[in-house]
Specification:
By secondary structure, this protein is mainly alpha-helical. The protein has 5 helices and 2 strands; from the N terminus they run ααααβαβ.
Length: 91
């Protein structure tokens, strides 16, 4: 399995193999949707938006709580998710 640079990922210990939670790996796979199917939003914008939201929700605090905190430095992301006071809820 290659990483983002194309180099192979070498796992030498059990601890390394267990380091990535299955949901973290799922979030990575979900991120590929926008690059592998750039027109996905045209077919079902809610599905794509929720998939990306759920991925960020998991990476935000390792729990699916239906909210993500968007730092003030990312106003475009806050607008896309309709965040109020920097907190977005699941679309």
């Amino acid at each position: 399995v290659p990483n983002y640079t194309g180099a192979p990922i070498v796992i030498t210990t059990t601890a390394q193999a267990n380091a990535a939670h299955v949901n973290t790996y799922g979030a990575f796979q979900n991120s590929l949707l926008t690059s592998e199917d750039p027109g996905g939003y045209a077919h079902n914008i809610y599905y794509v938006k929720r998939l990306i939201f759920d991925s960020i929700d998991w990476l935000d605090n390792h729990t699916f709580d239906g909210t993500i905190t968007i730092p003030a430095g990312y106003p475009a992301a806050a607008a896309w998710f309709n965040a109020v006071a920097g907190v977005a809820t699941r679309p």
